[in-house]
Amino acid sequence: MKTKTKTKTKLVVSICALTLIFSACKKDAETPEPVLDCNGIENGIAAEDDCQVCHESYMYGGMGAVTYVDTYADTVGVAGSFVLAGSPMDIMSNPNWNNCDPEPVVDCNGIENGIAAEDDCQVCHESYMYQGMGVVVTVATLADTAELDGVFILAGSLEDQASNPNWNNCDCNGVPNGIAAEDTCGTCHESYMYQGMGVLVNVPTLADTAGEEGMFILAGSDIDIASNPNWNVCK
Hints:
alpha+beta, elongated, three-stranded antiparallel β-sheet
């Protein structure tokens, strides 16, 4: 009787052990569902805004250079600052985030998605690729930079303003590249061509002197101040 009882007990224990093993194997065999982002990419890092528009994360390399990345793994070896889609930094710099009825963005040249910029003189400047030795290739949109060699300079950026002598280069009359000058009374005087016998021809810019006869007098110069009775005459 004792032998049968021991045998029966061993059988029950064996069955229980097998049941636990099979249960464990079955649990381990369950494959978790892959996590997909709004672009349908496994382990992707795109994010959807309130307008159900899917935005990609990217690496910002400076001066307008952007490299989009699908996953964290894609950031390896890519230079620049990582910007996660939907993060505060992305939302702050992305004009299309939660823009449910987007209108075409038109720049100062009237180009949709254009990257020209207007300075304080209302002069529209184009962005460009600097290819060295004074060679520049203007680009109307970011798409136009593809396949072009050189350094991208965004119009109105700090890099552009530092190297562009015509940025905000308007005189006291608001003329771009103008050569009028303001005296201490705040009066704006124009430069001119002196053609003799009291004849003066005003010239707003140096380009306007071309083809004009006479002596060029630059507003605010010593000769202008000496001959201009209205210079520094405050009312």
